[in-house]
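Hi R.,

Here's the chain you asked about this morning:
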Amino acid sequence: MKVAFYSGGKDSVYAALREWPVDMFIFLLYQFPRPSPHLMNMNFAVRLGSGMAPVLVYQLERGREFQQKAELLRRLGADIIVAGDVDVEEHLKYMERLAGEVGAVLKEPLWGMDHYELLAREVEELEFIVIGSSKRELLCRRVGRENFQEFASAARALGIDVLGEYGEYHSQVVSVSKFGISLNPTCKEVVEFDGYSIALI
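And the predicted structure, written out as tokens:
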């Protein structure tokens, strides 16, 4: 059983595409101090993900996340785990420990890639909309092959990473060419949490 951790964001989707086929997406519900843009747009994320693979939504208890993930992966019989980490060493070590705990092989196909090059490759296969950002100017922008250079320039001008790897922005994939999926969401409402803007689509 090959499972991919899935948030609806561009990196999780592109990592799965690089390791396709996958048998299941796992969408985890965390209890964060600040609301997650992905959780606040969960219905859309599940709808999009379901066009590619079955999506399992799983609630985690705060303080027991690692144990519960391991228990879930064992129950599913997961022997390959796909994740979309790029260069946050702490995340990679966590995933390696989790895979080791359940006896699975970890696949991190985006690890170590140049951020601009990775963004350029991602938009060859998908489009996304910015659903959360520390810079409101980026919120609700739809990014694809035709305008990703403009988006990257805007991010750099604002002093943030073009990939958003450090949480400067969060994305929701809206189009995946491999599966003929193309959705056109609109931002219905924007909410603010401690200077971080989240769009509801």
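The mean pLDDT is 96.

Let me know if you need anything else.
M.
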